[in-house]
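Risk mitigation, structural track. In case the binding assays with adenosine-5'-triphosphate fail to produce interpretable data, a predicted complex structure has been prepared as a fallback.
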Amino acid sequence: MHRAPCLHASAIIGHSGNGMGAQTTQTDNSRRTAGVTFAARLGFEEIRHGYHGRETLRGVSLTAEPGEVLCLLGPSGSGKTTLLRIAAGIEAQSSGRLLLNDREVAGPSVFVPPEQRGIGLMFQDFALFPHMSVVENVRFGLTAMPAREGTAEAMLALERVGLSHYAQKYPHALSGGEQQRVALARALAPRPGVLLMDEPFSGLDSRLKDTIRADTLAILRETRATAVVVTHDAEEAMRMADRIALLRDGKLVQVGTSDDLYRRPKDLFAAAFFSEINEFSGVVRNGHVSTPLGVAEANGMAEGREVSIAVRLSGVGVSADSGVIPARVVSRRFLGVVELLELAIPGSERPVRARIRADILPPGVRDATISVNPQDILVFEKDSETPYIGETKNTE
Ligand SMILES: Nc1ncnc2c1ncn2[C@@H]1O[C@H](COP(=O)(O)OP(=O)(O)OP(=O)(O)O)[C@@H](O)[C@H]1O
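Fallback model:
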C-alpha cells in the first residue's frame, strides 16, 4: 500500500553517523565510492500486527544478515510495507520482537525510537522536501552534526551517487532518476547499519529502472549496509537480492536465494509468483500423476493424494513436426524475441499456454505438437508445503 510518508524526523531515521571515518577514493569525476558502514543484523521474531481487528502480519520470523540485500517480495497487501514500518519504528508491532545486532529494539517492554535505531529509510516516492535544496535535503538526516560537518557529509553522500553538481538545485528541477539518487544519498548519509527501501524503483520510467537499480545495488555493495528492499516484482527481487523473503497474507511462504525460490518453490503460490504457469489438478495413482501434458512421477507422495501440477510456460515446447501430444494453435501473440501461444490439447478444457522463441514455429501453422521439459513440471501436494519436482513420461 502506498502511503504518504510522514515528513518529519522519521523520514530519515539515523542521524549522527556510526562514527566511522569516511573511506572514500575518487574513482572518476562524477562519483566517489561509498563510505563503508557497519552493517547490522536485523531480526524479526514472531512479529504479529493488525489493523482494526484484522491481522496483517501473522507471526513473521526473519533475519537480514549483515551486509546482505534481502528483498521482501509479495503481492499487494501481503504485509511488506508494514514489516518495514515496524523495523523503522514508525509502527509498533502488536507482538513479537525486533532485534538489531541481537539487541531488542522493539518488544513487549522496549521501544527504541526511530531516530536512535541507526536505520535508514527510503520511501517509494522519495519524499524529498520541495522547499529545500538537494544538499539541504541530504543534510536533513544529519542534524545532530555541527553544520559544517553535516554539509561536508551531505556533499560526500551526493558525490557517492554522482550528484554533487546538483547540490544547490531544488528537487523539482531534477528528473525522477536523479531524485531517486538524492533520496538514496539522504538515506545513506548517516551511514545506517540497515537501510530499508520501500519499492525504491516503482516511480521510475521502465527504461531507466534497470540502470538505476544496478547503480543502487553497486552503491549498496560499496557501503556494505544491510539492505531490506520491498518489491512486488519477482524479477526485480531476483536481480537485486542475496536472499528473497516471499510473503503472502502476512505470512512468510519461503526464504532463500532466487535459485531456491525459482527452482524449488515451496508451493503453487511460490511457483506462480516466479514464473508463468499452466496449472492442473491430479491424483496420485501407482506413484504417478496424469496430466494432459503427460504423466508426472509422484515419488514420495501418498497414493490417492490430490496434487496440484504447475507446468512453466517456458517449459512447453511447440513444434510443427509430428510428435506425441497433438495441439491446435488457438492464438499467437508476437512479443519480439519470444511469442506467447495458446494451444488446445486433448484432455484439457482450458488451452495450454507456451512461451517459445519467436522464430521456432513457421507463420500460419495450425496443427502442432507439444513436448514438455521435465524440469519445468512441478508437483505439489494440495494444502501441503512439500514440493516435488517431477519427471514426465508421455502417456501415448
Ligand atoms: N494504517 C492502516 N490502517 C488499516 N489497514 C492498514 C494500514 N496499513 C496497512 N493496512 C492493511 O494491512 C495490509 C498489509 O498492508 P501493507 O501495506 O503492509 O502491504 P504491502 O504488501 O506493502 O502492499 P503493497 O504492495 O500494496 O504496498 C493490507 O491489507 C492493508 O490494507
